[in-house]
């Protein structure tokens, strides 16, 4: 989609992304267990709105529209109607037009697109947040909740861990079609953890034992955990993204909006085009391709007049290690079946040709589902503005892209940003 | 909100709205009980998309954006990610940009607004649907699911039927402040059922025993059913909207979109402005006012340059009888505390000064939560185009409005439509 009115990312904020293995996460082995609780979904929403306003210096009375991306608040937190949770954060948001969108793991991306669309009309400043809490129930119960992003009636039964199994199915198809092993895919995992170890917001920032050797095959700390015997061997713990709690927020605005806020375009990045594609639940055409992502990526390339050769940074959905490999191919970074080469040869490392998921991606930065799509846009912005600290790229990128995926490549949202 | 690009409602479709007391609804006393099931959420989504395409004659390949309003698919149907359910209906929707929005009972209204916003950009034709299934669990379980539209952490405990109790609280405040009784409010209920009895899509179309006398006080078939003793006396069964399954779809388009589809503007209604306001969950300021609805209504009046005196038809949220009375006041149809007069004097009857909820409203047309906001827009369109059959107004309205509310007046969406 081309834009009629240019849209700029002003800035934003992350909470820490936390969960098991994060030092702040309260669980039975934490010294504060029983003394305090992990933050609630409401806490995350309130915190991220105020952090975003503070980080950008934006007067909330100037906000013309707000969208929140969240997948499963009704399940993990007994709470829907989250647009109306937003004014709890700040009195100035009362009577504002605020709403929640839901597209599984692409909820954050959809929140951004709905906000961009609002800026095509009479709105000039939008608040986009994503927030998710997933650690309030057991992993097994959580897996059942998350399965509502698949075609539940036909796919839930694949495995008690439905989504890992859906992607083990892709991994099996990929491995068998292209003759690759876990060792070939392990560099993608190792990159994620190496990047996250430099990122203070990352869920896995202190996890240093997951490296290429660890991720190359089964070991006692890295089991194949599925029950489904057809797919079990094809997915290890290290292939998976994290069950994280967290939130990210950004402010986006038109030129008129920037003028009202007194913000110079040079402090911003521009969203030059987006892609958004949806495919039917339960009807994957080819397990070795992300054809829905390809459609969204190609739409964004077409409408921006740019191609993969122009991209200097990328945030792509790596819900599982094979997803990132398939994303390389969908982007056109490598040919079909050649995705593992881009990981092996360093192309997607922080100092590579096209750095991908510089903060650690879903695998190691973490994956609070509804936040991820917003996080991706903010991470591209931060790399462009030199805000990434220890994981800052050596060369400031001029153009970058995000690819945020819901379910088994059933919804994909792509944005292309340009540095100003 | 004013629109930069004019937006037209082309047409649409309803499924029947069904549930307890509807002759097609399968429950233990239905002759087909055990032989067949009620339609699923997927059935409703697939059906309404195809009915909408058929009713409007729109080629689905021309659709540039689609939004679906749904409140609680993840709970009642174990299914989220409903944007990706839409392409199951029609192959031509594959790779289209489709997504779900959620704002409790205003989910349908938000689906319409997000689509209108998309038409402010480069999109020209949008599909807007709302669908909900709520009859898949017991009434008690359902009440817990629906409580996720309130501030669950603080409001759930009010009563096992949380939402009826929230509005019993408003009824009590209204009755005590203004000295009115159930008998004063009963004409609103009687109007809803009288209108629905003429509406073949209505959930309560065959229920003829609910009239003004019935709704005026407790009787064996019309109990005060809450457990909360503070509020019990203030809400009867007849004050409540229905737990319905159902779906509605519409097509909206820009002038360019109409040209592509070969549809003349004269067949359409125009959406001239909208209002959208949100207030913090759990923080109602005055139980005797819908201040959030007032904010959205006043925004729409301001941005359309119209007032209540211009309105010829209205669809307003009547989740409970008192809500409709409060809506009359929020619209400015009557002064504060005078809403019951508009019901008593016939002003809002089909042949009155400002007919409201001509098809029976949420109380008797039914309230499949996510569909309601879309239904309201389509109903205003249908009255303007003379499509309402036995409940067609005697005078064709030139201007009309919708007011769709989420939760306890925490999200309100208002649209103003003009006949062409």
**Class by SSE composition of chain A:** alpha/beta
Major sheet strand order of chain A? 3-2-4-5-1-6-9-8-7
DSSP helix count of chain A? Answer: 14
Total count of strands of chain A: 9
Rg from alpha-carbon coordinates of chain A: 20 Å
Low-confidence stretches of chain A: none
Give the end-to-end Cα distance of chain A, rounded to a whole number of Å.
20 Å
Shape of chain A: globular
Tell me the fraction of residues in β-strands of chain A, as a range.
15-25%
Largest inter-chain contact set: A-B, 69 and 68 residues
Oligomer description: homodimer
Mean pLDDT of chain A: 98
Largest sheet of chain A: 9 strands, mixed
Order of helices and strands of chain A: EHEHEHEHHHHHEHEHEHHHHEE
Helix content of chain A: 25-40%
Characterization of this structure:
Two copies of one chain form a homodimer. Chain A is an alpha/beta fold and 420 residues long. Chain A has 14 helices and nine strands. Chain A has helices spanning 41-56, 73-76, 107-120, 139-146, 152-155, 162-178, 182-196, 212-215, 255-261, 291-304, 321-331, 339-344, 361-365, 372-384, and strands at 2-14, 65-69, 98-102, 125-132, 246-253, 269-278, 313-316, 399-406, 411-419. In chain A, α3 (107-120) crosses α14 and α7 (182-196) packs across α11 (321-331). The two termini of chain A are 20 Å apart. The model of chain A has no long low-confidence stretch (mean pLDDT 98). Chains A and B meet through β1, α2, β3, α3 and β6 of A and β1, α2, β3, α3 and β6 of B.
